[in-house]
Amino acid sequence: MSAPGPDTTHAHFNLPARLLHWTMAAMILVMLFVGIGMVSSISVRPVLVDLHRPLGIAILLLACARLFNRLRHPPPALPADLPRWQAFAAHASHWLLYALMFAMPLVGWGMLSAGAYPVVMWSGVSLPPIAPHDPVVYAVLRTAHTWLALLLFATVLMHLAAALYHAWVRRDGVFPTMARGEDRAASGPDASRDIVAGKPELSNRV
Ligand code: HEM
């Protein structure tokens, strides 16, 4: 039996993909601001740290479900007239976002493990360490957590800018593929003009 090939018969992301996208978008934004709050406030730090750990692990679990769904259900093709560099930027940034959705929680979990801190989810429930107790490993992972968070911030902002560019400037039907479960053909007179149905080698697939 062969692996599932590109599916060009649909024009929007499936329901699990859309639910995971918007839920995780909100969770990741909350996490970024909770992280900043944690390191810049002493008074609210304990509450925020208690929120940060389980929410981060929830993002890791949802990222697993999302990757599984993404591999089983390839996304709709990008418009065929999208400049090649923009299609490349879309593919690269989407895979970078996937990588960061895994890396951020794993680095956070790993750094607490290396620092010999308990990775408490909620009262009485802790995760096992995933890294050896080592101050050097802790220092490396602690720094990585900050830099990866900055990279995630920047990538999320670029992703948002690109989504709005598709929605408001190009109006090419890309935004509704994630915003609604509606076919591109139904979202505007010219919206479906460039979908390369049935030509996977020409479609700008993520
Ligand atoms: C998508 C997941 C995550 C995001 C977006 C995220 C984001 C952040 C950000 C922005 C900071 C502030 C960084 C700084 O200013 O240096 C931070 C700090 C921190 N994160 Fe995460 N994080 C995630 C997952 C986790 C997980 C799963 C854990 C642990 C289980 C964790 C533990 C920590 C700790 C302990 C700090 C503060 C360390 C300190 O104050 O010294 N993070 N995180």
Automatic annotation (TrEMBL):
Entry membrane topology: Multi-pass membrane protein
Major localisation: membrane
This protein's UniProt keywords: Cell membrane, Electron transport, Heme, Iron, Membrane, Metal-binding, Transmembrane, Transmembrane helix, Transport
Cofactor: heme b
A Pfam family that the UniProt record links to this protein: Ni_hydr_CYTB
Residue segments, region Disordered: 183-206
Compartments it resides in: Cell membrane
Presence of the UniProt keyword Membrane in the record: yes
Transmembrane segments: 19-39, 95-117, 147-168
All residue ranges annotated as the Cytochrome b561 bacterial/Ni-hydrogenase domain in the record: 12-181
Family stated for the protein in its record: Belongs to the cytochrome b561 family.
Name of this protein: Cytochrome b
Organism, scientific name: Luteimonas notoginsengisoli
High-level lineage: Bacteria, Pseudomonadati, Pseudomonadota, Gammaproteobacteria, Lysobacterales
